[in-house]
Amino acid sequence: MRPCLTAVLLGVGLLLAGNRGAIGAQPDPAQAYHIPDPLLGEYVRTALDSNPSIQTAYAHYRAALQRVPQQTALPDPALTFGRFLRSVETREGPQLSTLTLSQRFPWFGKLDLKGKIAIKRAAARFRLFRAREREVAGGVKRAFYDVAYLDRALEIVREEQSLLDHYEDLAQARYASGKGLQQEVIRIQAEISRTMSRLELLRQQRQSAAARLNSLSDQPPEKSVPRLRLPAPAKVEIHLEELYELGARHRQELKGAMARIEATEQGVELAKKSFWPDVTLSAGTVNVGGLPPQDLLPSPRPGGGKNAYNLSVSINIPLRRHKYRAEVMEAAENLIAERSTYRDLRNRIQLSIRDLAVRIQTLWRQKGLFERVLIPQTREALRSAESGYRNGQLGALELLDSERSLLEAQVLQARYEADYMQALAEMEQAIGTRYPGPGEER
After folding, report:
1. Contact, 61 vs 122, CB < 8 A?
2. Of 65, 144, 231, 385, whose CB neighbour count within 10 A is largest?
3. What are the backbone dihedrals phi and psi of residue 284, each rounded to the nearest 5 degrees, phi first?
4. Are 385 and 394 in contact (CB under 8 A)?
5. Helices (H), 177-296
6. Residue 438 pLDDT > 70, yes or no?
7. Beta-carbon neighbour count of residue 301 at 10 Å?
8. What is the b/e burial string over 371-383, where b = at least 16 CB atoms within 10 angstroms of the residue's CB?
């Protein structure tokens, strides 16, 4: 009937297994996550070290571990002192007071089950902490790719602004020579103004994306973020069944849900033990007044008086059987709920994996279409329009239409590349492990 040492040792082992020191002993992000850019690796590492929500989840896990010694410890013993209001007279003197020490011992297995439940609940907290790490890392990657896209879009629009400045000079020269119209100069200048407005909008979006990236690392939103580049996207092979299996094996939320199921199963067993009584052992003494000090020891005289001592055993009587049956039914219903939650979570994970697989394949095709077909075509159309404008065969409107088409195509290609990298990051979070893994890129 002593506290279950097994549960205590399990708790200590789990504590050591999850000990991160100063929130900084997590695996190298380059091993745990797909890191196509060294600077991205630095941002992920900083976020894993510093993100407040990760530290919160870790503190909740450590707090849950402290439930183990609480649940496996015996109840505090009770010391009872009693004073006779009307003393009982004996041949040797009056009985003045009593002193009793009692200890309650829960029925066999109750403390063991409570310790196992606490361990499983702490394990569930640990899985939530690991899931939060991966969620934050995914957020860092998405914010990083947003900033990189906006940097690329700014670069494209600045190049376009330089091209429009060249067109303005060309239109001014044509107007000065009498070959062009002033209206053409005005149209190009209006396009330059539109481009400057677009540049300002992109800068504002870049500030917001950079602030989001900084906040994930617990940095001031205004902290400078260097110019980022989109990594070269690599095609990945999609095999849904393999992805489902990876998600089932590595997704931390599923492991946490399974730990809660196991804790609830132990809770059912604990509820069944409510039908069994607890045992209380007591030892006491009765103080008899009027005895000389030496008589506090066993009397040397046959039949001499002395203080009385007693031992007793008591049990509680679990008469309210309906209460304990309701307790068992409550635990059983909670078990059904936890199992249903697990199945629902597994189904939602598989659905998200499937949706992301379709999205990754679609984005790869769209990116390839822009890269191989649309951008070469719009670039060739712009060269033709520029040549026709120089020769006076086309007006400024046709030239600006071709220029705008190339601009939009280049910006969209950059957006598709960023979306593709973000989809890979989301797939990594969906399956709970590095994606694409070694050998999956080509």
Report:
1. yes
2. 144
3. -145, 170
4. yes
5. 182-216, 240-250, 252-272
6. no
7. 8
8. eeebbeebeebbe
Residue spans of the domains in the chain: they are 5-20+34-73+106-278+316-431, 77-105+279-315
Residue type, 352: S
Q: Give whole-number Cα distances, 320 to 49, 106, 110, in Å.
A: 53, 18, 19
Taking only the tens place, the pLDDT of each residue in 366-419 is 999 999 999 999 999 998 988 888 887 888 888 888 889 999 999 999 999 999
pTM of the entire structure?
A: 0.85
User: What sign for the dihedral angle of Cα 388, 390, 394, 399?
Assistant: positive
Identify the band that residue 290 occupies on the pLDDT scale cut at 50, 70 and 90. Answer: low
Beta bridge partners of 310: 284
In the CATH hierarchy, which fold is given to the domain comprising 5-20+34-73+106-278+316-431? Outer membrane efflux proteins (OEP) (1.20.1600)
pLDDT digits (tens, 9 = 90+) for 157-205: 999 999 888 888 888 887 787 777 888 888 888 989 999 999 999 999 9
